[in-house]
Amino acid sequence: MDLQQHYRQLSNYDEWANLEVITALRTAGRPLERSLKLTAHIVAAEYVWLTRIRQTSSPYPVWPDLKLEECAKEVPALAKSWKELLTHADILDRSVHYKNSKGEEYDSLVRDILTHVFMHSAYHRGQIAADMRQNGVTPAYTDFIQGVRKGLVE
After folding, report:
1. Cα–Cα distance for residue pair 31/15, rounded to 1 Å
2. DSSP states of 112-149 as a string?
3. Which terminus of the chain faces fewer neighbouring Cβ atoms within 10 Å, N or C?
4. Where are the domains of the chain?
5. What is the fold of 3-146?
6. For residue range 29-70, what is the model confidence (pLDDT) as tens digits?
7. What's the whole-number average pLDDT of the chain?
């Protein structure tokens, strides 16, 4: 597997895991505000990074007020965008110049941005799982290896 295929696999994992979280939140039986806020943040942060790479404006602030169904709609759209981005042969070695939310300027390689994005999402999915457990709700099983075992992450 080459590096670009590896990032496509991580994009597939990210989409699957985010949709699993959304499904678990739908079936929780009651609203879990912190979990929803973190899910919306995952979506928004991915857009922030995607638009930094594309040198465009993000449709959302970093901490948006999104409903669960809005998140459910955006997750596949984001996955499609990540996969399209990964069709460009030289994309992983491309350097992106951007400003962070504090206005500080940086240059980062796309491969480092992608690694950050997928790890950032996994970190927050862990927080969501903890919040769900704390509220007596069974969280989604979103371990990477689970997706691979089920053939959902290729």
Report:
1. 22
2. HHHHHHHHHHHHHHHHHHHHHHHTT-PPP---HHHHHH
3. N
4. 3-146
5. Four Helix Bundle (Hemerythrin (Met), subunit A) (1.20.120)
6. 899 999 999 999 999 999 999 999 999 999 999 999 999 999
7. 96
